[in-house]
Amino acid sequence: MDDAQLVERIAERFGEAREVPLPDPKWLRPDAPQVKVPAERVAEVARYLKNELGFDLLDFLTAVDWLKENRFEMVYCFTKTAEPKSRLFLKADLPREGEPGLPSLAGLYKAADWQEREVFDLFGIRFEGHPHLKRILLWEGYPGHPLRKDYVHVPDKYDNGSEIGLPKSAVPSGEHK
Amino acid sequence: MNPLNPPAGVINATADSILSGPSFETKMERLSETEMLLNMGPQHPSTHGVLRVVLKLDGEVVTGAMPDVGYLHRGVEKLSENRLYPQVIVLTDRDDYLCAMLNNWAYCLAVEQLLKVEVPARAEYIRVLVGELNRIASHLVLIGTFGIDIGAFTPFLYAFGREREMILDLLDQVSGARITYNYIRIGGVMADLPAGWTEKAGKFVAHMRACLKEYDDLLTYNPIFLDRTRGVGILSKESAVSYGVAGPNLRASGVPLDLRKMAPYGVYGKFDFEMALGKNGDCFDRYLVRRNEIEQSLRIIEQALEALPAGDILGKVPKANIRPPAGEAYAHIEGARGWLGVYLISDGSLQPYRMHVRAPSFISLAVLQEILKGWKVADVVAILGSIDIVLGEVDR
């Protein structure tokens, strides 16, 4: 089954699925089919990919913040243990406002458990049905989600060494001499 | 009331808040009358870095485990959005500091996909040479520290203190650094091999072969070592695939999957080597796969030294202002700990729009919550050691 057939088959099963359009005609892409589905159907599509099309390995999942277009994009990369050359990218758009969320894949692929927590931690995207959706790399109560493009760093004690007892001379002034 | 062992029916929030402050919630359920929580780490000699595992124990048997990571989080992905493309290579060095060459490589492959630059043949061979040497060095750390974890001190002195140092010397001579190399560059490598290096590398290959025998006598067939590792901490095929574990840990569970063989990148298609495979997915198999992989890496190095062509070491890449055309790329390679992937998005500017690292240690570590169950506290150390994680990469 070549790439076009694969996309066709997914589109046949899920009416809303379509190949991800290029943002502009010169846009470069990895050599693998890319399918976009509505966010709320991600888990269904993943189940189909796993059970019917043999994509048994979830390579990675992450998110991208497209601030100018006011959307988050979830990116999933699936592959097969028997045939690691064949890959499929599954994408889904989410609004940036409010509490963006989509179904969790943790029940299907255990790999999604920690990686979804990472996306939740760094992007603030919620995964419905995740067994343990907690921050994983940062601590509870951390202000904001750093991988969002509009995240502003709040200066803390580490931005000014003098507050942790370093002599003034040891604190970089930020100016070049 | 003993705070570490509240009576049955008391939700472990009490014990939790004592152990870790109110913010941390484990997904463990209530403790029964005979159970207690044990906090292992974050400062613990056998966690190989700053890792905390909350164990739920019934006597000496682990009934639940919850790893807590993030102590070394430096925000590499965020930092890279504010760096020039070549500057990001330096950050990747700090992800998995036991095989920094491979980190450099994965990132450079992704940028090269966007730039569509051709890497000269000599540079490809040098990448294989330093990459495989670094893989051996990384596996030697596992052999050494895994031995220490379960009581065998001597192999550490040999593997870590003798052979690994030889490799670090070789890599120091090509790159000028022992650990963080910044050697593989976008489009090739930083510098050509110094005079006499290939002979030294050839000598090392012969030396290392003899040493593997020594390790076998000291560790591999040591009855105590076998007792502590065989049949312990079994990771089933199905579980390993579901967790997305790839690399030596997956091969130890008996799944033949190696990108160098099945989806070759660079010049790996030209080498003759075998895939090291395990059968049972226990601690011993995870050790043995790495020990055998060293042998295969030596074969690859030998062939690469023999076939090393002359020529340029850097492709046609601008000297400054590297500006890949807009687009996305995903490059993954067979890292020392599993698939090491870099998902990169360029908006046509001087800095990456987004860089995501598929960190194999992070993904392998998640299996801990499952495979620790049912084993004794002493086995926790063996199982954790056999998974071979680097916390710098877990937390990024």
* Averaged pLDDT of chain A: 83
CATH topology of chain B: Cytochrome-c3 Hydrogenase, chain B
Based on CA atoms alone, the radius of gyration of chain A comes out at: 20 Å
- CATH superfamily of chain B, called what? Cytochrome-c3 Hydrogenase, chain B
Number of helical elements of chain A = 3
pLDDT below 50 for ≥5 consecutive residues: which ranges of chain B? Answer: 1-28
CATH class category label of chain B = Mainly Alpha
CATH topology type of chain A: Beta Polymerase, domain 2
Strand order of the largest sheet of chain A: 1-2-5-4-3
Assembly type of the chains comes to heterodimer
CATH architecture assignment name of chain B: Orthogonal Bundle
Number of E strands of chain B:
8
**CATH H-level superfamily of chain A:** NADH:ubiquinone oxidoreductase Nqo5 subunit
Biggest beta sheet attributes of chain B: 3 strands, antiparallel
Counting helices, strands and paired strands, the structural category of chain B is mainly alpha
Strand elements of chain A, count: 7
Note the topology.
The complex is a heterodimer of chains A (177) and B (396).
Chain A: H1 3-13, E1 18-19, E2 34-36, H2 42-51, E3 57-66, E4 71-79, E5 87-95, E6 101-103, H3 111-123, E7 126-128
Chain B: H1 13-20, E1 35-40, E2 52-58, E3 61-68, H2 76-80, H3 85-93, H4 100-115, H5 121-149, H6 154-175, E4 184-185, E5 188-189, H7 197-220, H8 223-229, H9 237-242, H10 248-252, H11 259-262, H12 283-307, E6 327-334, E7 339-346, E8 354-358, H13 360-365, H14 368-371, H15 377-387, H16 391-395
Helix pairs in contact in B: 3-4, 4-5, 5-6, 5-12, 5-15, 6-7, 7-12, 12-15
